[in-house]
Structures are given as structure tokens and as C-alpha cells.
Design a protein that fits this description.
Elements: H1 2-7, H2 11-15, E1 22-23, E2 28-31, E3 42-45, H3 48-59, E4 70-71, E5 74-75, H4 80-89, H5 99-110, H6 115-122, H7 127-133, H8 138-154
Antiparallel strand pairs: 1-2, 2-3, 4-5
Helix pairs in contact: 5-6
Length: about 170
């Protein structure tokens, strides 16, 4: 869950991630093209929360298991029932793990990350799909209105248009 929240990676990409693709020294994870839905590999620079998460997973590793995320050394299988129960107990029935991708896209855009870089992080190949994930809310519209008011208020009060003299 935490990895998905901080990366926007697809569930299959997360579950298939192997230790051979993690370079803690360089602070990156290299997703192989074979594991990516769009068949393009990508690099994830590890933020501080992700470094800590990967270090915890390193402590929980099982010898002989290549996967970063596993259940007692076995690949994670179908966990929809567990996910649905956790969502119900959290008061969020009907949420999907895939909803985390939308959250990450929105967070990246609102943090001011350039769209091309955000798309590279999340693995979105086309602008149209990326835009579908970046849903505008009423709070976003309110924030935009407030920023416009702030911008206008900071503008010079000196008129930029000088009246033409009536004397010729």
C-alpha cells in the first residue's frame, strides 16, 4: 500500500518487483520493461519514505525468494478479499488499489512536478490517459481562484496605460 501510494505503480509491477532491480546504493529501482504494462522500463528514484520502506522489506526478506513484496517467501496472489475488507474497515468501501495511481498523479501535478516527469514516474505513456487520472476537484478550482486573487493583488497599482493628453 505504501509503495503504491508513493509511486503510482500498478499492482502487478509492485508484486513482481525483484531484489535484482533494487539498487539501494544508487537510491533507485529499475523496473524492467518486461514487467511494465506498456513494455517500457523506467527508473524510480527512491524518496526518503521509499528508502525506509525498502529497508524494512530487506529486513523481512526470505532467502531464496527474489521478490521485494511477498508472503512468507511466496509470491503475492489474489488479495482482493483482504483489500476489500481493509477498505470496509477503514470506512472506504469500494476503493480500488488502482485508485492510488490517480492519487499519485494528482499529488505530483499539485506538487509542481513537470507532467512529462510525472508520466515517466507513473508509467503513463500517453498524455490523454495521464489527463484522465488528473481529476480536477472543487477544492482545486477554489485554490485556483484564490491564487488568481493573490496574483492580482500583488500586481503594481501604477496604471500601465497613460491617458493621451488632449493638448496637441
Amino acid at each position: 500500500l505504501d509503495f503504491g501510494y508513493h509511486t503510482g505503480w500498478r499492482r502487478g509491477e509492485i508484486f513482481k518487483l525483484e531484489w535484482q532491480n533494487v539498487d539501494l546504493e544508487a537510491g533507485v529501482i529499475r523496473l524492467r520493461h518486461k514487467l511494465s504494462k506498456n513494455k517500457e522500463g523506467r527508473v524510480l528514484a527512491l524518496s526518503e519514505p521509499l528508502k525506509k520502506l525498502i529497508e524494512r522489506r530487506w529486513q523481512a526478506r526470505v532467502l531464496g525468494c527474489p521478490f521485494v513484496f511477498h508472503m512468507k517467501g511466496k509470491p503475492i496472489g489474489d488479495w482482493r478479499k483482504t483489500w476489500n475488507r481493509a477498505c470496509r474497515e477503514a470506512g472506504l468501501p469500494g476503493k480500488l488499489f488502482h485508485d492510488l495511481r490517480r492519487t499519485v498523479v494528482r499529488n505530483l501535478v499539485r506538487a509542481g512536478v513537470v507532467d512529462k516527469v510525472a508520466m515517466s514516474l507513473t508509467g503513463h505513456k500517453t498524455r490523454s490517459v495521464f489527463d484522465r487520472y488528473n481529476i480536477v476537484s472543487e477544492a482545486d478550482l477554489q485554490q485556483a481562484s484564490n491564487r488568481l486573487v493573490d496574483y492580482i493583488a500583488k500586481q503594481s497599482k501604477i496604471p500601465s496605460v497613460v491617458p493621451i493628453s488632449k493638448k496637441f
